[in-house]
Amino acid sequence: MIILGPLLNVVSFALGLYKMALTIYIVLGWLEAFNIINRYNTFVYNAHNFLQSIIEPVLGPIRRVIPPISGWDLSPIALIFIIYFFEGVLLEIMKKFPS
């Protein structure tokens, strides 16, 4: 049980980083769609490809369950709710096993 507390802290931190990456991915997509940033810029292109490689494998199965509604892709919102759910579960577990 000694390792469980720090392990849960690391998992919680990783979920927070993933949530932040998802938020950046969403905002970057909006900025590209409205031509506020140039998608052919090397930094923007590399950032988009990196975020897409870590976000899209998780969003794909969610999109099969929740299809776009009137052109709106709600899968990122569902993923954020799922992450918040798991963070809440981790918090409750961490209360039982403090580090």
CA-based shape: elongated
Q: List the secondary-structure elements in sequence, H or E.
A: HHH
* CA-atom Rg in angstroms: 17 Å
What class, by secondary structure content?
mainly alpha
Low-confidence stretches: none
Strand content: under 5%
Total count of strands = 0
Count of separate DSSP helical elements: 3
Give the biggest sheet.
Answer: none
* Gap from first CA to last CA: 9 Å
Averaged pLDDT: 93
- Domain count: 1
Helix content: over 70%
Describe the structure.
With 99 residues, this protein is mostly helical. The protein has one domain. Helix content is 77%, strand content 0%. The chain has helices at residues 4-33, 42-65, 75-96. Helix 1 (4-33) crosses helix 2 (42-65), helix 1 (4-33) runs antiparallel to helix 3 (75-96) and helix 2 crosses helix 3 (75-96). The mean pLDDT is 93.
Question: Would you spell out the secondary-structure blueprint of this structure?
Answer:
Elements: H1 4-33, H2 42-65, H3 75-96
Helix pairs in contact: 1-2, 1-3, 2-3
Structural descriptors:
single chain, 99 residues, mainly alpha, 3 helices
